[in-house]
Amino acid sequence: MPAAGCCSATARLWRRRGGAVRPGARPRGPRARGPGGGGAGGRPAARARGGAARPPGAAAYVTLAALRRLVAALARQPGRRMLLLASGGFSTAGLELPQDALIEAASRSRVALVALDVAAHPHPVALATLANLAASTAGRYLAYRSGPLQGLAGFRAWPAPAYRLALDTGAVAHDGRFHRLQVELAAPGAGTVPTRRGYYAPPPEGSVAALRARMDAALRAGRALGQVPAALSARVHPGRVAATVALDLRRLRFDHHGGWYQDLYFVAGLYRPDGRFVSGEQGEMDLTLSDATRRRLRARGLKAVLALGAAPGRYQLRVVVGAFSGGALFASRQAVVVP
What does the pLDDT average to over 111-130? Predict the structure, then answer.
C-alpha cells in the first residue's frame, strides 16, 4: 500500500447512510463515492481522473484517508479490533497531521494497526512509517523474513497483558507542533513498552470536530455564508430532494505539497416551515489533485450531490459545506415543495 494504479487525482464524496441524520449526530459508514456525489440509487455521478504523473505524496495521502475510513468501519464492530496493513512502506513527509489524525482515531476506537512488511529491500523512511503506525496504536510491526507473508509466522494478535494510558494535554499549547511522548518501566531491564512516539497538537480551529461543530451551528441557524466558493441548487422528485453543490475550484483554497489537497465536509437538512428538522444527509469529499487535473477541474468545476427523503409538503432545504484547510464555511438555504 498505496495500491498500484491509483489515479493522480481522487475526489470522493462519501455519502452517509440514512435519511434522518440529525445535526450533531455521529455519521455512519460510507455508501457511495464520486467527485460529483452520488446519483440516483447511490451511483457515483462522476470520477476525477488524470493522465498526468501522480504527484509526490498523493498516494500516501489517499492511503492515510483510506485507513481512517477502515478504522471508522472497524470501530462499529464489537470486541477487540485489528487492522492488518500489508505494505512495502510509504513516506508521510509533509503529511504529519493526517497521519496523526489516523493514529488518534485508531487509539480512541481501540483499533490496533498491525503492519506487515512485504518488501525485501524497502527504504528506511518507508519502514519507519509502518513501525510508527503499529507502535502508536498498540499494534505490532512484523518485519520481512524469507517471503512476503513469513512475518506472520508465530504472530500473536493480542499481547497479554495490555494497558491503556491516557494523558491530559489541556495544558499543552495547541500550536501545530510535534510533542514527544516517552513511557518507561519503573524496573530497569523489565522489558520494552511499544507506544506512540508523540503527537501533533493542531490549533483548535484546525480539528475536524471543531469544523463539524461550526457546521452544525450554521445548519441550525439557517443563515447564508459565502466563505467557500460554492452555489446551491435543488431538484425535487416524488419523495426526495437532490441538493447539488457546485464548487468553484478557481477560488477554493488548497494545501500544496507535491499535490493539491483539500478535505470538504457536507451536511444537508430539510426543515419544516416551523423550523422542525425532518431529514438530513452528510458526506465527505477528499480532494487529491495533480497540477493537470486541478487545471482541468478549475475550468469545468466540481459538483457534489446529496439526496434527502421526505413526504409530500413544503420544506426549507439547508446545506453547509466546510473546508478543512482554512476552516471556511459555505451555507445556503432554498424553499422546496416535494410532490
Answer: 83
Q: How many domains does the chain have?
A: 2
When mean pLDDT is compared across 23-37, 48-62, 84-98, 272-286, the lowest value belongs to 23-37
Half-sphere exposure of 78 (CA within 13 A, CB side): 0
Amino acid letter, residue 222: G
Q: Which of the given ranges, 28-32, 202-206, 277-281, has the highest pLDDT on average? A: 277-281
- 66 and 199 fall within a common domain: yes
**298 is written with which cell numbers?**
478549475
CATH code at position 331: 2.60.40.10
**187 and 292 share a domain?**
no
Domain holding 288, by residue range, is 206-338
Which of 187, 204, 221 is the C-terminal boundary of a domain? 204
| Radius of gyration in angstroms for the set of CA atoms belonging to the chain, rounded to a whole number | 22
Q: Are residues 106 and 132 in the same domain?
A: yes
Q: How far is CA 280 from CA 232, 243, 277, in A?
A: 16, 11, 8
- Distances, alpha carbon 151 to alpha carbons 80, 81, 148, 196, in Å: 22, 20, 7, 22
Amino acid identity of residue 304, one-letter, is A
The answer to whether residue 301 scores a pLDDT higher than 70 is yes
Stretch among 159-163, 187-191, 299-303 having the lowest mean pLDDT: 159-163
pTM above 0.70, yes or no: no
Residues 211, 197 share a domain: no
